[in-house]
Amino acid sequence: MIAFWVLAVILLASAIWCVTASKPVYSVVALLLHFAALAATYLTLNAEFLAVIQIIVYSGAILILFLFVIALLSSGVAPFSVGPNRLPKIAYPAIALVLIAVGFLTWVLGRASVAAPAASPGGSPVGPAGTAGVFGSVSDFGTALFTTYLLPFEMTALILMVAVIGVVLLAGDQTPYIATKKRAEDVRREMREAILREGGQ
Amino acid sequence: MNPMTVPVANYIALSAVIFFIGVAGVVVRRNPLIMLMSIELMFNAANLLFAAFARAWWHNAGHIFVFLVITVAAAEAAIGLAIVVTVFRSAKNVDVDDVALMKG
Amino acid sequence: MPVTMLHHVMGVDGYYPTLIALWLLPLAGAIVNWAFGPQLKRTAGPLGSAAIGASFVATLLLWGAATQHSADGALGAHQALFNWIPGWDFGLLIDPLALLWALIITGVGFLIHVYSIGYMDGDNAFARFFAYMNFFVFAMLTLVLSDNFVGLLVGWGLVGLASYFLIGFWFFKPTAVAAARKAFVLNVVGDVGIMFAIFAIFTAVHSITFGDAFAFAGSYGTPLLFVICLCLFIGAAAKSAQIPLHTWLPDAMEGPTPVSALIHAATMVTAGVYLIARCAPLWSQNPDAQLLVGTIGGLTALIGAILGCAQWDIKRILAYSTMSQIGYMIMGVGVGAYEGGVAHFFTHAFFKAQLFLGSGIIIHALHDEQDVRRMGGLLKKLPFAAWAMGTGVLAIAGIPGFSGFFSKDQVIYGMLTHGPHSHPWLYVLGIVTAGITAYYMCRLFFVTFFGAYRGDVDPSSLGIRHPELAGTPPSDHEKEPEVEHSPNAQWFMIVPVAILIPFTVLIGWIMFGGENSPWAHFFEQQFPHPALNVPAISEGLTGLITFAVVLVGIGIAYMRYATASAQSNAVERLRSESIHMPAILTHAFGFDYALDWLFVKPAEFLGRFFGRWLDPHVLDGAVRETVISAQWLGALTRSFQTGLLRAYAFILVFGAACFIVYYALAAGGFH
Fold first, then answer.
1. Domains in chain B with CATH codes
2. Which listed residue, of A87, A153, A158, C493, carries a Cα 20 to 30 Å from C394's Cα?
3. What is the CA radius of gyration of chain C?
4. A170 vs chain B: nearest CA distance in angstroms?
5. Residue C653 to residue B23, Cβ atoms within 8 A
6. Where in chain A is the domain with CATH 1.20.120.1200?
7. What mean pLDDT, rounded, does chain C reach?
8. Stretch A30-42: mean pLDDT, rounded?
């Protein structure tokens, strides 16, 4: 119980800091903290596999990606100075209204009663965390993933491939494929000269 | 076996609050990178809810769903960042308000 | 429809090809003249006249058929034309009343057509004139030969149209165009009156034929019958220039003189008299309507006569005299003295046509001079015109022996014999008006023919304020009046007038003898004969009194205009009379102003209101506002498309929040 409240405070504080930080790097660090607290929360919920996945994928890959992009965009002059705010003034009272709705929603949902079954309908045995084969363990998760939920798993593979192709197309090197090494060197020389001629960008 | 010590309503409330903090971040901030990070916040709030209910009902479908969400969020973040890089590669300021080309 | 027509023609109803020819020949003449005018050139005149002449012959041939009784006791010859819808049967009917009118229309019409060949000689639109005249005769025949109200109304409207064509014949004169329009508008008011009467009759009887309408006469009920008679009289008053719808007649003199003779003297303006005489069965049932019509006729007679004393244009004097004489006719047929009123129509056709045609000879000879102040001394210069005008004046004044005496006397006496308590006031009014008539007609004659010729006198010294309006004055180098040069044209004008003179003088004798006269016999089956009052004053005594008053009128006119002393300082006398003419007379008792303020100005105001305010501001404004509101709506919707990513994101979230709140409440049962 205490764990929940402590973690809740950390989650909220880091989320707010992430959104309101002045520099993007601060936001990334705040987000890192948020993900760590989230992993701890998963642990309290008997989802140890998820906690690890959270750390590895989210903190370890996605946030690193963000850092790379921040570094890439910082090469410009004053990259993070901003111009005049063009959002209409009505936005701010509207956001307040939305947050009120949030509070209302929370209140309503808090009054819902959720019945909890004794045994696990998912079929996994229930036991303390850390035991093999119980709910939330790697084997339990893997069994479900590769039997009942095989199709979504394959589709996520497809999605990831599409994402990779898309990123390469969007932001990748636009040089066409060169058949021979010599030809590639010639092309690269021409491109350098063109850039130097136009004064670089 | 043992029911949750923390009532699930708490997790619902927490998840909702984090979600709307993410929303506020998307709407208020003008840096596209911060906006993407806020979107990640929203994803994670949803994940938290899935995990909480998986525990409440002892059903591992919630875990599967979190896995899928993480995967898709990763793909989406990659593509979003690629777009940001492409659009703002040669921009003076990294400000989302400057790309209001669809006005009218 | 042709099959039906053939069945009717060959079938049970009578077959009168002469009647159809009588009706349609003038139309054929009109169409030929219209279509081939430029090719016909001068032969349009004889062609048009021949068409009317043939119609006249046809009318004479139908005399026997018109005065006979058919198998079922109906009077006259009936030719059915076609059925349209149940209750609407169109046909032609010629009975003694229609026969009389047809004789005048075609007979006097023929003479006037021949006269026009001479009068309109040299005019560019020669053929068009005869086309219009033939069309008028056709329309008038439609009016008098129809056996039903709707056919009569069609003829009614068409003669109004023909009148519009002919008054505005010289359409390059703005005064003529305005006069034509005025006549037409006032006539349309009458058309509407007759239309309402037809509605009322059809609602009651479900038929439009005269026979059915009159057979039902006793069953209409007094209020409805009075309304019908009133509406019919509105039509008659408009067409026959009775008060208060008479203002178009003096202005109608803008048309050529033959037009004034045919339409505005002999035939069209008597259509109202025909209508009342035709609907005699209706009027005889309703003494209130009879009183109304008789009174208005009498007032018109008096007012027309008074105004005739104040005119200086020869044609306007004759116009007011026409109005006054038709007042007599209306008075006669109004109170129920149908033979008298129709008799006065008959004699008036002759002497008024003669007066107009004679004045046309004078006008032509003086090169379009119409103001009598600039005439004078024409006894020696235009002797034939003097004979024509002189006999006409004697006839209209009612000198015993001349035609006008007999008919006018019948009308005046009828005021005492007809009516529940007779009409003594109308009797007195008729006699007084006869005296005034004698006065102003003799005034016309004396001023025109006696004394020295005044054509070369400066117009302003004669009291003429607007010489350019009183016809074209003779040019400066002409000191004496000249007869029109083209010799043949002169004969075309003289012969018809010469034919008319014996009629004017003698035709009245067919009315001599009261109940036993040929005239009475001719009409004895036509009109209802209610019981007559036996007045204290006999018909002979009435004639004597009238003659005495007429002599007084002639005497006054002689004193003022014809004595030697009057002739010697004629210029000075005419000038002083012109200057001291009371304004109320020069403005014709203000009827023009009254009608203008009552109807024209409100109509103009309405027109301005609708055209200048309502249409641009309200109607166009509504359209504009629709456009503007569509544009505003579009702008409002467009304002959401800011192009700002964050705004779009916010709207997404806002919408999602709404859904969430709604479903949370719905699932939670709204508590």
1. 8-91 (1.10.287.3510)
2. C493
3. 32
4. 6
5. yes
6. 1-75
7. 85
8. 96
